[in-house]
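Deviation from plan, reported transparently: 9YT complex.
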Amino acid sequence: MIVRTLQDVIGTDQEVRAENWTSRRLLLRDAGMGFSLHDTVIHAGTTTEIHYQNHLEAVYCIEGNGVVHEVATGMSHEIESGTVYALDKNDKHLLIAETEMRMICVFNPPLVGPEVHDENGVYPALTEA
Ligand code: 9YT
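Because the crystal trials were delayed, the predicted structure below was used instead.
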């Protein structure tokens, strides 16, 4: 069994910072679960273009509010605490944080650790950290 806390991750290399967000990566590929699990803070007032071409991601908002905008359909969805969205079609999207948002994120395949978005909002398909 693996037991760890958010405090165990903060300040380590499993706390990954980007311009618009900080991702606390609680479980990564090396945990052997087949997914990774993150507690991610999105900074207030930011818009992030994201396109996970190599991963499926589900995102459960537990604090704050904002909008997720689907690029392909032009649809926008209000996101608040208690809302989940799942990028089941590797959907390209914009994440607009009206306030600071705290999101629980699950990735399949799991991230290995250091991934950040490239210029197209993509995470690389890494197999080793
Ligand atoms: C919600 C979202 O995709 N934010 C970007 C960061 C990502 N979820 C991560 O690596 O935790």
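The CA atoms of residues 29 and 90 lie 20 Å apart. We consider this an acceptable substitute for the interim report.
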